[in-house]
Structures are given as C-alpha cells and as structure tokens.
Amino acid sequence: MALPFVVVLPLLIVVAAGVYYIYNEVIRFMSKSLVRNKVVVITDAVSGVGTECAHLFHKGGARLILGGTNWDKLESLFDSLTSDADPRETFAPKLVILDFSDMDSMEDVVSEVLECYGCVDVLICNSSMKLKAPIQSVSLEMDRNIMDVNYFGPSALAKGVLPTMISRRSGHILLVNSIQGRLAVPFRSSYAASKHAAQAFFDCLRAEVEEYGIVVSTISHTFIDASHQPLAAGEPAPKPNALAACDQLTHGVRPSVLANEILQTVNRKRKEVVLAHPIPRVALCLRSFCPPFLFAVLAAGVKDSVLAEQM
C-alpha cells in the first residue's frame, strides 16, 4: 500500500535537509584541508572583510602574512587569532606594514613578504579606497591616490610575487574587486576607473600565466554591508534609517559572506565570481546588450539626486 502524499513530502524534505547538511559539512572540511600549510597573503587584513578572511584561513591551518597600514590594529588582530588557537593546528601569522598609497615602499614590502616563508601560494588583494563626489570636484591628486591604492598597489604586489610562482609553477592571485569594475556608476568616477583598470590588468594576467599553472581570480561584489559589524569601544550607534536598512538588505554583501566566497574561490580555483543581487546583474546585461537604455536610466538618476539635494 502506497504512502499518502502528505506523509511522503515531509520525509523527502527531511532527507533533502540531511543531504544538504552533510554536503555543507564535507565542503567545510575540504575548505580547511585545502588551505592547510599554504602561504596566504591578505593585503588589508584589518578591514572587515580582511579580518573575516584572516580568521577563516587561520582556522584552516594556513601560514598567514597579514598586511595593513596600522601596526596596532595588526597586533590586535594577531592577538585575536592566536589567543584561542591550537599551536599544533595553526601557525602564528606574520605581520607586514603595507600601504599602497606609498608606492615607493612596494619593493621593500615585496622583499619582506617573500622573506617570511620564501614563497607565496595565495595572494589576496583586498585593499580599496572609495570616493563619492562629482567629477569636477575631484582633484588630480585624489585621482592618483585612488589609482595607487586600487590599481597600482595590487598590480605591483602581484608582479612582485609572480616570479616565485612562475618558478614553482603554482600559485593563486585573487583580486577582491567591485561590481563597479564592470559597471560605472555616477559620482564614483575615480573609484570606478581604478576598479576598471584593476579588472583589465588581472584579466590580462590570467591569460598570460595560465601556462605556468597559476590561477587568477576576480570577485566583483556590491558594496560592503557593515551594519552588522561590532562597534568599536566608545563608538556611538548609528541612527536608524529604514530606507538605508532596506537598501543594504537588498544590495549589500556582509563581510562574512564575502570572506566565505573568497575561501571557496581559492579552494575551487574559480576564475571569476560576481557576488551581486539581481538589480546589478540586470544592469550588467543592459550595459552589454542595450547600453542606451542604461545610460538614460543613469542620467535620470543623476537628475533625481540633484533635485533631491535642492529640496
């Protein structure tokens, strides 16, 4: 006698949930084993995304080299990573002062990074400088600063570690970019230009080094939703804003989600990832297949924002 549908459906749901849970556990275990003993460089380790990445890769047994512009923050991150860690399962991170706005220091930085372990298995370029302003109000000096941090810095570091990767015929270079490296948005001219340049550089690099067994990945994400990040001591809580909260829920990506995507991209050696919700994805399609319509929508949006500021 066949079981009724009302009995079979819950059983199927329970079985599916069980399979999904087992699959996630297997993937999580493989994620840790795949990065174990790997030398991983994170350029802006003290940022929200960088800190999440540091914790994930450290738990996985990677040999971390953490870069940042603030030594005190790097030491604080070092303490948080090592305080509860098992020294038999993890390695104490190496700390390096890394400031892409100081391009003259890059040669010394590359030497210091390579001296830590003699090689780099995974380079995660996570640094970024943002700016929102009308084009006519942005100075040339600011344009250059943004290009240094978002383009020249990552490209210089990638070039610096590339010879050792080529000689070992292995390595992974990952750029945490932005959806604006593929889609320009008004009032983000310098930022979008730097991200477009970085996207093009790493696309070219991917093709040139494939023959050496080196993987180059880019992750294009929407803006970082830091609304769930813990507040620093003494920092006032932000005022509630229903519109902003709705916008972040719809379009933003949390640092923990992006960090997990970075880990999965390294493990699965994916070459390009777009981490965005439907609206930016639709805009990308319009940019390719119907650019006049997208341009009209963006121009209308600029007029609306100007009118809102005048009211």
Commentary on this structure:
The chain has helices at residues 5-35, 48-59, 71-82, 106-117, 140-168, 189-209, 242-251, 255-268, 278-289, 291-310; strands at 39-42, 63-68, 94-97, 122-125, 171-176, 214-221, 272-275. The protein is α/β, with parallel strands linked by helices. The protein has 2 domains: 10-226 and 250-276, NAD(P)-binding Rossmann-like Domain (Rossmann fold, 3-Layer(aba) Sandwich); 281-310, no CATH class. A 7-stranded parallel β-sheet has the order 3-2-1-4-5-6-7, sandwiched between helices.
Short description:
By secondary structure, the chain is an alpha/beta fold. The chain has 10 helices and 7 strands. Strand 5 (171-176), helix 6 (189-209) and strand 6 form a beta-alpha-beta unit.
The fold-level CATH name of the largest domain is Rossmann fold
The total tally of domains equals 2
N/C terminus separation: 72 Å
Q: Tell me the major beta sheet.
A: 7 strands, parallel
- The class by helix and strand makeup works out as alpha/beta
Order of helices and strands: HEHEHEHEHEHEHHEHH
Task: Provide the gyration radius in Å.
Answer: 22 Å
Any idea what the shape is? globular
Q: Please estimate the helix content.
A: 55-70%
Kindly report the name of the CATH homologous superfamily of the largest domain: NAD(P)-binding Rossmann-like Domain
Strand order of the largest sheet: 3-2-1-4-5-6-7
CATH class category name of the largest domain: Alpha Beta
| Low-confidence runs | 230-250, 307-311
What's the number of helices? 10
Mean pLDDT: 85
- How many strand segments? 7
Family: Belongs to the short-chain dehydrogenases/reductases (SDR) family.
GO molecular function: oxidoreductase activity, acting on the CH-OH group of donors, NAD or NADP as acceptor
GO biological process, one term: intracellular calcium ion homeostasis
Protein name: Dehydrogenase/reductase (SDR family) member 7Cb
